[in-house]
Amino acid sequence: MAAKKEKTFKFVIVGGGIAGVTCVEQLTSQIPSADVALITAGHHIKAVTNYKQLTVIHSAVKSLHTETHSLETADGRVFGYEKLCICSGGRPKLLTQDNPYVLGIRDTDSAQEFQKLLSKAKRIVVVGNGGIALELVYEVEGCEVIWAVKDKAIGNTFFDAGAAQFLIPSLEADKPEVAAPCKRTRYTTEEPAPGASQTFTAEPGSALGPDWHEGIALRGAQQVSRRVSVEYQCEVEKIFTSEELLNSPQQTLRPESAGSWPVYVQLTNGKTFGCDLVVSATGVVPNAEPFLHGNTFAVAGDGGLRVDDHMMTSEPDVYAAGDVCTACWELSSLWQQMRLWTQARQMGWYAGRCMAAHVLSEPIELDFCFELFSHITKFFNYKVVLLGKFNGQGLGSDHELLVRCTKGREYVKVVLSGGRMVGAVLIGETDLEETFENLILNQMDLTPYGEELLNPDVDIEDYFD
Ligand SMILES: Cc1cc2nc3c(=O)[nH]c(=O)nc-3n(C[C@H](O)[C@H](O)[C@H](O)COP(=O)(O)OP(=O)(O)OC[C@H]3O[C@@H](n4cnc5c(N)ncnc54)[C@H](O)[C@@H]3O)c2cc1C
Ligand SMILES: NC(=O)C1=CN([C@@H]2O[C@H](COP(=O)(O)OP(=O)(O)OC[C@H]3O[C@@H](n4cnc5c(N)ncnc54)[C@H](OP(=O)(O)O)[C@@H]3O)[C@@H](O)[C@H]2O)C=CC1
Fold this sequence. Notes:
FAD/NAD(P)-binding domain, binds NADPH dihydro-nicotinamide-adenine-dinucleotide phosphate, 26 strands, flavoprotein, FAD-bd_OxRdtase, binds flavin-adenine dinucleotide, alpha/beta, 9 helices, oxidoreductase, Pyridine nucleotide-disulfide oxidoreductase domain-containing protein 1, FAD, 7-stranded mixed β-sheet, Enolase-like, domain 1
């Protein structure tokens, strides 16, 4: 690299999302005198990073040179590092690039863009069957929603068909006046400090995370409340603009409909829908590219930087955490990676601890939070808790399920393998999460209890205390 290093920091963290900020917090608490730089492309950083030794640089990293331990930012500056942690997150894996009618939702800017376009929309098509789609189809009002999913049931990334069936009536009912309470710490974003170095580009900001739609009106241009039609087992065949459609020789639409919408989505089930906007809620791609060129990072099949049980990539002194990385250590049989806020925070925290431990030559073991998968969220105004191998992931036919369901109130599913609990899905106010978490962790043989385990007349909490 020709340019001279402006400064060499002990620690450099790239990315001001939850993973990067937690990593900084952990490093500065472990080694308060450490010289730390946070380099981030977005306008905002998550939460407060109020440490004297912290230098915040608002610019995107353009290239990384692991041999010289340096990186170059979009505004042409070069910084050196002793240890680096890449927390550059992910971006939406869009159905198609550069189509103004196809939108992904990731950060504040894209959510505002969606809100603006929605306010003029009468019909939108939502494609995808994961977290964003589940939240959107429930929250959007004043607009018809066509929801196209690949699977036989809704919410494939979180649920099985039973849970989906439990949830579906909520899409048809009116929303309750009072939303289920949120008992989680809320994070806010911080404006850049006055005078802080920054270049505003079209760079991605941090992912929105839990509760992102609270306080944002997701309202379309119609007088209807919620109206969702689900198109099952189909994918997008083609997306046309109105003009393309009118000029197309094989017109598949009814003539009266052609030309009345700005964009049309042809699905593999043979149906074509005109709409004002297509939301591509089709997953995330790790933001690893700026770091790859000229280096020899090991990259996982999903495009993430492979990390070991110390959050280290294959390049010396380079760590990674959050959505950009792929956990490639020998995983616990009860944990799997999902690109979630909680995991990004746990990884950032643990990466910070590992970096500090390595500098201080202290031993460090894989954190306990990677023992058991747990995720608490809210879908369709129900509290949802997912534990361990909640969908029998990787168990093949070697598992049995116990299910208890009360329509409109709760859905409880337990996954057992060899008589031991290995996962659970809890929807509604079940109060079972703590007991089940313990039963999964202690791997007690539950064979003697059989179906009694879910007997609503047995106070299971007392039973296993
Ligand atoms: C709409 C939405 C709702 C969600 N809801 C939930 C939820 O309810 N529960 C849950 O658990 N998870 C949820 N998630 C997922 C969760 O938000 C993410 O998994 C998590 O925030 C990822 O954090 P991160 O720090 O790894 O990445 P990000 O938040 O993406 O942060 C990456 C940071 O890196 C910066 N950056 C990127 N490239 C560069 C570069 N080249 N140079 C410098 N900086 C760079 C970005 O500006 C950003 O600051 C949601 C995600 C979305 C999009
Ligand atoms: N409450 C929560 O916990 C929330 C979490 N999130 C997180 O934010 C991130 C982004 O959310 P989201 O975009 O919904 O990602 P998800 O990974 O949750 O879901 C993506 C969905 O899109 C499907 N899909 C992928 N490609 C296509 C395609 N070409 N055509 C049709 N469907 C496709 C996937 O199916 P398949 O799985 O078969 O590939 C999957 O159903 C995720 O990491 C998610 O976990 C987001 C919102 C809320």
